[in-house]
Amino acid sequence: MDLTTTIWLVVGATFALYIGIAIWSRAGSTSEFYVAGGGVPPVMNGMATAADWMSAASFISMAGLISNMGYGGGLFLMGWTGGYVLLATLLAPYLRKFGKFTVPQFIGDRFYSKSASTVAVVCLLTASLTYIIGQMTGVGIAFSRFLGVSSDTGIYVGQAIVFVYAVFGGMKGITYTQVAQYIVLIFAYIIPAVFISLQLTGNPIPQLGLGSTMSGTDVALLTRLDQVVTDLGFGKYTTTTAGSTLNMFVYTVSLMIGTAGLPHVIMRFFTVPTVHAARLSAGWALVFIALLYTTAPAVAGMARYNLNATVTPGIKTNADLYLPESNLKAEDRPEWMKRWEKTGLLKWQDKNGDGRIQYYDDKTKNPDAKAKAEAAGWKGNELTVNADIIVLANPEIALLPNWVIALVAAGGLAAALSTAAGLLMAISAAISHDLVKGVFAPNISEKGELLAGKISMAVAIVISGYLGLNPPGFAAGTVALAFGIAASSLFPAIMMGIFSKKMNKEGAMCGMLAGLALTLFYVFAHKGIFFIKGTEYLDLIGGANSFFGITPEAFGAVGALVNFIVAFLVDKVTKEPPEHIQHLVEAVRTPRGAKAVTGAH
Asked: In terms of C-beta density within 10 A (0-12 exposed, 13-18 middle, 19 or more buried), how is residue 157 classed?
């Protein structure tokens, strides 16, 4: 069976499974729509949380970024995993004990103000919509390559699939669909990694394979990779950092606290029956997440080696990499390269007219590599590889069987669609439950609220699809912006709501608005107002990364610090919270006992 047919069959089967589950488990009440009735077992909730949290950025883009950045890419691993631990230990049990459907509802009740809830809704919508752009970008990339359609068409198909199981199934349908999606994506990630680890090192465990010697040699894989990339002018794979040490640190903190402030992940802890179950499901989710996250560095390193060895075959024979015969003849390039060229995500241009592909760093500061490239008559790097294709192309680069390539396609789509559904759920709940019922129409019937939830989800799907057609950058880069927005706005308010009984509504609202406004100001200066190209205003802030060399993706931590400072300053000059709110905060922090999850305002 040819590759395209195999992919259609595997992806079609997984889509049929998701839609079947959604129809089987469709929501009949607001409790089922928002929190799956509050009765999901911890292990299943752990799987659903892992699928919800491991988005297209984790599956498709993260290993690609590590592959490109080397050691510096580890900040994504540390930031996202550390953030999940922060969420599971510091926030989830207390929010579950509080017993409400949504984050804005917690903020509205804790800060005794509908205005605070409305500000939280604005912050949630900004972070969630930015996050969905990254998912839709991932869906478009996966569809465009594997199903032979354009990236735009891929986004439309992805929208339709999510619409069916998210709008009809609600959180109940999403939860059970996400369990299936986790199983698909984890097999799709680990099976190719096992194959490739065996090929390169003879070790079937990728995590160990990365540190092993290469088959038939006494040279470690990472040592050989370091040698190859530095010979070609790139930075050393095992030591290169992402900008300055300060930027690395701030970026990691931003991803950590952004993870802990992400509303769609927090909502998962309202779907279990008790606080104990919330803690258990957090632990299970960490186990399920670790399976992918500990495999990602191996996938990244091995993909980088295989890509270089494909384009520069002299690597395999230890030849001089600057000799003509060490570089791939354009006419001999493998089929997978031609297939990815059609998507525009891999580009080749013969700059020196020798009919061969030179893949090296033409902006290198390495004088040896520079001199060798000039002596060989090279006129610049001739291959451009988008970081988002590394994982999806990995099994093709390694010449693995068609069914493995098809499985990876299904896994990439599962990762993007599962997170998109979770985000849409958070958006829907914020609009229908916190704005419509909480502010504008408190007496709305349950049926009316359910309808409002479904309509707001449908509108969010359309908006996110449009934004996905015009993304501000790589899937993981866009997602990092969303984490920064959540870090600067929601995380401090939730933390202060749980751990500071004296924090009042004025402080919380001013903090959220200050953190959000500052972060968006810095991000929009680099990426354009609402990510519209051509509306950047870098001159106004003194140039790119002008604030101590901090990139816009890392700026959320600075916004969070401003949020805390503004909140505490405003709190000092305004009235302290009522007595009953202070008692409520103390009660929420007591370990035992939890209310049933309720949507009551």
From this structure: middle
Q: What's the CA angle centered on 342, arms 337 and 348, to 5 degrees?
A: 55
Name residue, tokens 């927005």: 485
CB–CB of 31/102 below 8 Å? no
418, 410, 399, 390: CA torsion to nearest 10:
-30
- The three-state secondary structure class of 329 is strand
Helix H or strand E segment including 424: helix 402-429
In single-letter form, the type of residue at position 380 comes to G
Helices 245-260, 74-86: inter-axial angle, 10-degree rounding:
40
Average pLDDT over residues 368-375: 92
User: What does the pLDDT look like over 428-459, one tens digit per residue?
Assistant: 878 887 788 877 888 888 788 888 888 888 88
**Alpha-helical runs (H) found in 539-593:** 556-572, 579-588
**Nearest in space to 249 (alpha carbons), one of 495, 387, 82, 134:** 82
Residue 141 near residue 389, CB atoms below 8 Å: yes
Both structure tokens of 7: 């992919």
- pLDDT per residue as tens digits for the range 249-278: 998 999 899 888 877 777 777 778 877 888
- pTM (predicted TM-score): 0.82
Residue 183: C-alpha distances to residues 10, 161, 226, 550 (Å): 14, 18, 34, 37
Q: Is 212 left (phi over 0), alpha (psi -120 to 50) or beta?
A: beta
Give DSSP secondary structure letters for 215-265: TTSSSBHHHHHHHHHHHTTPPPTTT--SS-HHHHHHHHHHHHHHHHT-HHH
Q: What pLDDT is stored for residue 431 in this prediction?
A: 84
Token digits of residue 178: 């996400």
Percent of the chain with pLDDT over 70: 93
Say if residue 475's pLDDT is above 80: no
To the nearest 10°, report the CA torsion of 355, 361, 366, 369: -10
